[in-house]
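Summary for the steering committee. One of the milestones for this cycle was to obtain a three-dimensional model of the protein with cytidine-5'-monophosphate bound, which we needed before selecting residues for the alanine scan. The sequence and ligand used are listed below.
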Amino acid sequence: MQPTTIASKDPVAVAVAAAIAPSDRLIVALDLPDMAAAEAMIGRLGDSVTFYKIGYQLAYAGGLSMVGRLADAGKKIFIDLKLHDIGNTVARGVESIAKSGATFLTVHAYPQTMKAAVEARAGSSLKILAVTVLTSYDDGDLHAAGYRLGVSDLVEARARQAQALGVDGLVCSPEEVASLRQIVGHQMHLVTPGIRPQGSSVGDQKRIMTPARAIAAGADYLVVGRPVMEAADPRAAADAIQAEIAQALG
Ligand code: C5P
């Protein structure tokens, strides 16, 4: 079945979608063990990738020092450190990250944390993304952690809180995009990992979609790690995803 294109959707969706450069919609996760591997990968990917994600693995191996350099080279950077601490500590951390030139930063979707992060990024170009419920959690995991709500109710409650607090976007599974759009409209960015091009290995991701289907479902940005990192030709893999995104955008 052919996915619906953004062009067939409502005018607000079309306007918001048009504000994002198509090539920026692919965010490649630099899930690599050290700086040398990251530099080599960035060199191989060249102009094919404009947006990179730095997570725990590379950040704690010196990766944050690349942010300014990548930004100066015209790349956008998503720092995926999923912050959560007392408000003052979150705010001071966000202030430092805002100065680095990064575009996105994740925090856990707790009200105090989101409020502190949103206030601390004011006046910078940094955008805050909230992680509603980790995708590895099911209802039983939430119950074991002391929560009363199941995954879908907690995702919805936190999405509403995030929007009310002025958070810029949400990280969610591709399957949650359509229902979250109903809740938060088009003012928040929806960023989805769990993307697998046709024929690529699923790895540990459980709820996956192809790039085209995720875009058609309403995702703004797609986070892709292993299908690019582990490809025999990472640049060709990234180019193929970019082409699929461009086609889905109509
Ligand atoms: O290799 P793969 O494409 O599965 O990588 C997805 C990236 O998105 C990884 O960096 C992973 O940590 C991140 N991520 C995720 N699920 C979330 C949030 C982030 O897979 N819920």
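Key point for the committee: The pocket of cytidine-5'-monophosphate is lined by residues 29, 31, 55, 134-135, 171, 193, 203, 205, 223-227 (CB under 6 Å).
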